[in-house]
Amino acid sequence: MSQQTHSLSQLALQKFKKNFWGVFSLVFIGLIGLVSVFAYVFAPDASQHANQMHVTIHSKSPGFSVDMLTIPSQIKNDQSFLDKVFFGNKNTDTEIPISNYSINGNQLTYTEYASDGLEGVTKTINANFINQNSAKQYIKKVTFYLGTDKYGRDLLSRLLVGARISFFIGFVAVFISLVIGIIMGSLAGYYGGKVDALIMWIINVTWSIPTLLLVIAITLALGKGFWQVFIAVGLTMWVEVARVVRGQIISAKQMQYVTAARALGFSDFRIISKHILPNILAPVIVISAANFAAAILIESGLSFLGIGAQPPMASWGAMIKDHYNYIILGKPYLAVLPGLCIMLLVMAFMLIGNALRDALDVKH
């Protein structure tokens, strides 16, 4: 009969598996992560930042279809396959929504799409690249499954590509906060005295400044941009980690295994990294899950204020900013859908945090 393992990590894993919402949230976050990495593979509009604009079909309802004429460019696209997959296609072709067309020899006559019952402009161009046989290659019916935004961009593609910023800012911000928080908290908790007093003063000063205000100040100092926001959010979230680590180390350094390690002559670095930190990871993991959710909300707020990810980069917060006035103009889904995406992702991280808290609780 095989001996059953009853290690704390296995018991925690078994408890986590029994938590339906925890497992469901983990699967959901995994799917969002997959979409974030391969956003341009799933997005109908695979151009960089899903930024293909068609002003004539702006703010169209979900399921809207139109014939799209593609006029190839003379500029050669020398992108590699991996570059297209991860960063989008540098689309140099011209796309024009049309309502009807006719081909006569090398002449292509088309009528541009116009909404609200208006008649579009009719144009004739010399189209050597197109004939009756290849018309389907350059004129295709395009369906916008979630409609278009106020610039005529595919809303579904923008949502998929926008998931990348909201998802990865959690990882980058939490990583930065963990590195700084664990180092500062470990030093304060282990050495105490003046070191503790100095670090706690820094923590209290940082804690007293409103998070959004501090992020705005750091963002303005570093400049507007993608990575600047990631760093700014991470630099404001380390205080919670540091306080938790400090409290846990103050308790743990009184334990017998720490006394034994000191008696064996181990260095302070080894005692902290090899003996104390592995035993206090449970609360740090739980607070990291909460910080994931907080980072997503802060980034969304920054993008809404216009100092987060900059156009034409897709961001859920920026999409709400662009379309919040459409809530009273009869097309609320333009702002509600990105808001719903933020809510679901934040809720998933919070549910995982609750599930981890229950699973890692040794008292139950």
From TrEMBL:
Tell me the ranges covered by the ABC transmembrane type-1 domain, including all copies: 163-353
Which CDD domains does the UniProt entry name for this protein? TM_PBP2 (cd06261)
Residues spanning the signal sequence: none
One GO cellular component this record assigns the protein to is:
plasma membrane
Domain of life, per the record?
Answer: Bacteria
Query: One biological process GO term for this chain?
Result: transmembrane transport
Q: Which residues cross the membrane?
A: 20-43, 165-191, 198-220, 226-245, 276-298, 333-356
Q: Which InterPro entries does the UniProt record give?
A: BP-dependent_transpt_permease, MetI-like, MetI-like_sf, OppC_N
Keyword Disulfide bond present in the record's keywords: the answer is no
Localization, per the record, is:
Cell membrane
Q: What is its main location?
A: membrane
Keywords carried by this UniProt record: Cell membrane, Membrane, Transmembrane, Transmembrane helix, Transport
Q: Which family does it belong to?
A: Belongs to the binding-protein-dependent transport system permease family.
What is this protein identified as? Peptide/nickel transport system permease protein
The species is Olleya aquimaris
Q: What is the lineage of its organism?
A: Bacteria, Pseudomonadati, Bacteroidota, Flavobacteriia, Flavobacteriales
